Automatic annotation (TrEMBL), chain A:
Pfam families per UniProt: BPD_transp_1
Protein name per the record: ABC transporter permease
GO CC annotations on file: plasma membrane
Transmembrane spans: 25-48, 185-209, 221-244, 272-302, 323-349, 369-391
Location relative to the cell: Cell membrane
GO biological process: transmembrane transport
Cited Gene3D superfamilies: MetI-like (1.10.3720.10)
Keyword tags: Cell membrane, Membrane, Transmembrane, Transmembrane helix, Transport
Family classification: Belongs to the binding-protein-dependent transport system permease family. CysTW subfamily.
UniProtKB/TrEMBL annotation, chain B:
InterPro entries associated with the record: MetI-like (IPR000515), MetI-like_sf (IPR035906)
Name under which the protein is recorded: ABC transporter permease
Keywords for the protein's UniProt record, in alphabetical order: Cell inner membrane, Cell membrane, Membrane, Transmembrane, Transmembrane helix, Transport
Organism per entry: Pseudomonas bharatica CSV86
Family that this chain belongs to: Belongs to the binding-protein-dependent transport system permease family.
UniProt membrane topology term: Multi-pass membrane protein
Lineage: Bacteria, Pseudomonadati, Pseudomonadota, Gammaproteobacteria, Pseudomonadales
Any GO BP annotation: transmembrane transport
Amino acid sequence: MSAIALPPSLPVVARKDRAALWRAYGLLAPLVLFLLLTFVGPIGTLLWRAVADNELPQALPTTARALSAWDGRSAPDETLFKPFVADLREASPRDLAALARRLAYETPALRSLLATAKREVAGLDGSVAAMGALDQRWLDNATWQTFKRAAGPVGSYHLLSAVDIKHDYQQGLVNKDEAGLYRSILARTFSIAAITTLVCVLLAFPLCVFLDRRTPRTRNLLLLMILLPFWTSILVRTTAWMVLLQDGGMVNALLMALGWVDSPVHLLYNRFGVILALVHVMLPFMVFPLLAAMAGCNRLLVQAAYSMGARPLRVFFQVYLPQVLPGLAAGALMVFIVTLGFYITPALLGGPADQMISFYIAQFTTGTLNWGLASALGLVLLVATTLLYLVQAHLARRGAEGVKR
Amino acid sequence: MIRNPNRGRLAWFGNLGLSLSGWLVLAFLLLPILVVLPLSFSDSRYMSLPLGNFTLHWYEEFFGSAQWLGALFNSFAIAVASTVLAVVLGGLAALGLRHPAMPGKRLIEVLLIAPMIVPAVIVGVGMYFVFANAGLTRSYLGLILAHTTLAVPFVIVNVGSALGGLNQRLLWAAASMGATPWMTLRKVTLPLVSPGLISGGLFAFATSLDEVVVTLFLAGPDQRTLPREMFTTAREALSPVLLSAATIMVLFATLLLLVSRSLSKR
């Protein structure tokens, strides 16, 4: 190649290259535009809603400005009351209802407090005495802190709520009263995913060693037994487990026929059923990368270790396992990532105490309409998924390099 | 003396244990799906052992109800439309990604694969916010766009790997003999990557047919799909009709699997 002397500049090729570049961009443009509208836009909206706090600035614009100027530590005074009363006179009922809902996320009592203030607004002049006469709570620092946290238009309230933290202007970041609600949901989500991953690894390893030792022909036939569940709808598999695990179902009928139990065991609507079905759904995702890693493992090294008198356990841990570890780790992380976001299977097979973070995101979106919190929980899930995926991609690349070596 | 690790009593037990556990895990994977089939033909309401008498009652109920039949039809219509859209958009984009030194290539690749990685609930909630403003919720178009988004990465991956195996010399040969880029694409590239296109399309089809999470967020009362109908029914009460629906979907999965296998053998 280098024997052919090329002139230093290649104007014709360069021009052609530019055309090729534009052609490539042109081919990519339709899909990129499509995904900007149907994917990037929606995800961006979700991220925006996690930090947006629009209800108070919308309903009480001058109060919002006064709240930003207020330090949150001192006792509330007329610098807040005057704009509040003025805004309250102008505010539309619709905006006020939205604001009341927003404030009630944090302090349910504020809903009625705000409604009373709106009703009595004609008699208010924005003085401390008048506000105190209306309700003593209007003079509390805590009441106005709640207002300040909602003063928007951008705020950290929803994000902090998703991890049970509140920004108190007097004490800094503090745990919320109903401490541990979302943190325990998060911990539950991670623990279900971790157990599922562990069981998948424990089941996939012997299966893959078994498959790896078959002849290619047998292996391909046996792989069909893994591919059929893989291609079958998750909903079908989840339904099948519901039928099998119900109190009068086949598993219980079998257990009783064998005389192992006298009355049906509850296998459904608890953690056991959820994890069993999750393992069933996720196992193929573990088997394929692990089997590829085992196929790429250098068997001569194993034989060499044996020929030099190494004991089987030592061969396994020092020669065999290091070679398949990148594939094993990539598969395990993939299982973990996908399990983190599961919704359908726990919703159908689990009880109230087995629901994962996705369930709450869905519930806050379409059920209680707390879109800020739904988005904040979504953001937490998205960040966890993205970080783990970066690690996974790195491991998968290293695994592929290991195979080439 | 060198011990042969594949001989001796211990190794024999080890191999037996390995085969046994291998077969047990395979059974765990396959049996739950196979069990559904006989139960859907049994006249016992309880969906358990002992099996009742043979009946087609549950299938009659499935095919006799406008609700289930409509859901089946909707699922297929949406899957076909989103597969076509995903294969066209994804196929073009995969061709574009062949350019070796395009600025921003990594970013574009990440964007095109991302819908496969991001949890379905997040995609669903985001689309729910945006599509509601655009008037696309409660519409077939909205569902087709959503399913296309989720299916596109599978087309990119499959066509991409088919293009990766493409012999560049064939394209140069075509060009050197005076073929225009369009002619090269039609006569050389497309025939060679068609297995990748078809298997990408199969994955796209299966993805759409299986998708329920985003559908739950976007669909209105008219847009019943089979998985959505199964989800809502299973949430209320288990009924053998569910099993006949499941059996139909298992048969379909088998079909998709066999087609994709025969493609990969070629």
